Amino acid sequence: MKGWLGNFKVLFLLGMLALVLTGCGRENLTALIPKGYGAQTSMDLIILTTIVMTFVFLVVMVVYTIVLFRFRRKKGQEDYVPKQVEGHKMLETVWTVIPIILVIIIAIPTTIATFDLASEAGSKEDDAINVDVTGNQFWWHFNYNDGEIQTSQDLYVPVGEKVFLHMLSSDVVHSFWVPSIAGKMDLNPENENTMYIEAYEEGIYWGKCAELCGPAHSLMDFKVIAVSPEEYDQWVADMKDVDPDAEPEDAVAQEGKELFEQNNCIGCHAIGDSPAGQGPNLTNFGNRTEFAGILEPTKENLVDWIVDPESIKPGNKMTGMYPDVSEDDAEKIAEYLMQLKDTDVTPDSVK
Ligand code: CUA
């Protein structure tokens, strides 16, 4: 009896843990509240398979319960051997055919959805938005329409339009996953993978790297920012117009810009439409939703990050790439970077 109670306690605790953990989701980071074509397609399949599995579970439980009570050993029947039904043709047929039908019910829509999602993903049509996505330890580079716009971490897209992603990794295998919008896709160092995303509603959707890729894998976050088509056009026009050499207006930021160049930050971080460097492109940095993948965009956080990146994102490639920066200098650099606001279309534009 005691052992049974012990097992029950463990089961109870595991059940409660599962219940609590399901509450850990956030609205813009869940496949269960789909806000895009791929995610909606997946959700439809999740519902279908859940219905089928619930049906199977209920049928099995009902049969199990009936058999348990009806055929349990009764008093005085200890030596009774019931009639053997081995090789019962009818039963064998029923429990072979029903699962086959259920598998077909699941397989047909799944196959259609798989081909549907893959059908257009490889094309680079002239009038479509094509983005080359590069996964890096531990950040994301986005190159719109073969170099028209280069940016990092925040992927702006227009609502209701397909955006074709062509994905490669610069180092190890990563996986692009924005659960609210679409399914996962791996980024390999060699062969290009493609997919498309389409957001139904304006919003800031959380993206995660879904493939273990190093010490800071869990900090390799990014965002998809879906804005109205008009705002998207505005964003494109503004981003194409960025002048990487523009002088900041106030003196502190000007000093920051000089320090940024002196400390050779510019050697890894491009500003403007230069191709991907060793580190994230910092165009429009002042409008980022977050930086270093996970930090709130405040000046204090940026100073901490510049002074000691390793303590925030272990294994990142910025550590050790430049001489020690004093807190004072870091503040000036931060001031400069925070002022890099190249467009009025920002995360705040999202309704
Ligand atoms: Cu990149 Cu995990």
What can you tell me about this protein's structure?
The protein has 351 residues and is an alpha+beta fold. 38% of the residues lie in helices and 16% in strands. The chain has 8 helices and 10 strands. The strands form 2 sheets. The chain has a 5-stranded mixed beta sheet. The longest helix is centred in the first third of the chain and has 34 residues, at 37-70. Dinuclear copper ion (CUA) is lined by residues 135, 138, 174, 209, 211-213, 217, 220. Dinuclear copper ion binds at residues 135, 138, 174, 209, 211-213, 217, 220.
**How big is the Rg?**
28 Å
Side-by-side strand order of the widest sheet:
3-2-1-5-8
The bound ligands are: dinuclear copper ion
The helix/strand order is HHHEEEEEEEEEEHHHHH
Q: Outline the biggest β-sheet.
A: 5 strands, mixed
Strand proportion: 15-25%
Low-confidence regions: none
Q: Structural class, from secondary structure content?
A: alpha+beta
Task: Provide the fold topology.
Blueprint: H1 2-22, H2 37-70, H3 89-119, E1 129-136, E2 139-144, E3 149-152, E4 154-158, E5 163-169, E6 174-177, E7 185-187, E8 193-197, E9 203-209, E10 222-227, H4 229-240, H5 251-262, H6 299-307, H7 309-312, H8 327-338
Parallel strand pairs: 1-5, 4-10
Antiparallel strand pairs: 1-2, 2-3, 5-8, 6-7, 6-9, 9-10
Helix pairs in contact: 2-3, 5-8, 6-8
The structure holds dinuclear copper ion.
